[in-house]
Specification:
375 residues; D-Maltodextrin-Binding Protein, domain 2; 5-stranded mixed beta sheet; 11 strands; disordered N terminus; 14 helices; 6-stranded mixed beta sheet; globular; alpha/beta
């Protein structure tokens, strides 16, 4: 199979081009945007320089060529696809084409559960997906269902906890991956979250009472909404828009870019930054496959993932900001909360009970996560 050769420049350009229509703002915004792009470019250049240095240190030409198979089931142009293809491109560059990833995006090899099952059995090697689908294979990943656990922290702090070499949480979560037959390569996020869109103004905890909100069919997510007084309603994705339009439901929850893709600004009045679940993509590899790789290839793969995360994090923040702007330009009113709101929600008995339940399910990993974030 032939590797999909996608350069980091082309990937970045495609993402920025896709967001160009969401632009706008005054000179201050333009200055901030220019500064962010300059910083991102500098980080990318530094990462490429490190890759070149690493390539110079290892003589990959003396190793047998190895091709891995990677896949995702995200929508076209979604962060998961761009992340996976960027890792493939970087691995190719770092090793001079000796280690390659034949990457299949957008569900070419199946849905998330199918891909993870194939990865676990060794039929494919690498999978990129959001955290929720992994719970059926790695029960400890339910730690990401802890509501609002990340809401008060920035992307740098969360990245250190999820990916840091000295992070106790990362160590314990990685061990859970190994037990299930996977090897954790990294988690991509930048403190962007699932939000709530609604036709009812939800500024306070009391405003959520009896709010008919569409959720995923996830017991922990539904328990959270019930605990704050809402009425969670699982519903097929294809039915959500029309149900919001005709008033069958009042609200739904998703990442901002998903809301834009579904044109929810046409049928929803408010965009509330409830920040209840972190929007994150994990990348993993079959454990036996990783261990079979030459240590130089293992290092190259780890390096490619680390560089891709560093390069994409500013883009995730841009996508989130531009998506929120598209929704508000389309007529939605943005509602933001201070830390006191999150503290009030987290102090509810029902939410505290849910925390205890999830912490038990993940063998205390929830406590480790909270302690790591609070350091």
């Amino acid at each position: 199979m032939k590797l999909r050769k996608v350069t980091a420049l082309a990937l970045t350009g495609a993402m920025v081009a896709g967001l160009a229509a969401c632009g706008g703002g005054g000179s201050a915004a333009a200055t901030t945007k220019a500064a962010e792009e300059t910083k991102a470019a500098a980080e990318s250049k530094a990462a490429e320089s490190k890759a070149d240095e690493k390539a110079a240190d290892a003589d990959y030409s003396k190793l047998d060529k190895v091709e891995l198979i990677g896949a995702d089931s995200t929508g076209k142009g979604a962060a998961g696809q761009i992340f996976g293809e960027l890792v493939a491109s970087k691995v190719d560059k770092i090793t001079g084409g000796q280690l390659t990833i034949d990457y299949h995006p957008n569900g070419e090899l199946g849905g998330d559960a199918d891909l993870l099952r194939q990865e676990q059995s060794g039929d494919i090697d690498i999978v990129v997906c959001q955290t929720a689908p992994t719970v059926s294979f790695i029960p400890e990943m339910a730690v990401f269902d802890l509501p609002m656990v990340f809401a008060k922290y920035d992307g740098d702090k969360i990245d250190q906890v999820l990916n840091g070499q000295d992070s106790k949480f990362n160590e314990q979560l990685s061990a859970a991956y190994e037990t299930a037959g996977f090897h954790k390569l990294g988690i991509l996020q930048n403190a962007t979250y699932r939000l709530t869109t609604s036709n009812k103004e939800v500024k306070t905890k009391a405003d959520f009472k009896e709010l008919k909100i569409r959720t995923m069919e996830n017991a922990n997510h539904m328990a959270f909404w019930t605990a704050i007084g809402a009425a969670p309603t699982p519903l097929a994705w294809a039915e959500v828009y029309i149900s919001l339009q005709n008033g069958t439901i009042d609200a739904e929850e998703n990442a901002a870019d998903t809301c834009v893709g579904a044109n929810f600004q046409e049928v929803q009045k408010y965009l509330a930054c409830t920040n209840h679940i972190l929007y994150a993509n994990q990348i993993s590899i079959n454990k036996d496959k990783y261990e079979s790789l030459d240590p130089a290839y293992q290092a190259a793969l780890d390096q490619a993932v680390s560089e891709a995360i560093a390069e994409m994090r500013p883009q995730l923040e841009k996508i989130d900001k531009d998506s929120k702007k598209t929704l508000t330009d389309g007529g939605m009113t943005l509602i933001e909360y201070d830390n006191a709101f999150y503290d009030e929600i987290l102090a509810l008995d029902g939410v505290k009970d849910l925390y205890k339940k999830i912490d038990g399910d993940v063998k205390g990993l929830g406590t480790t996560l909270q302690e790591s974030l609070a350091k």
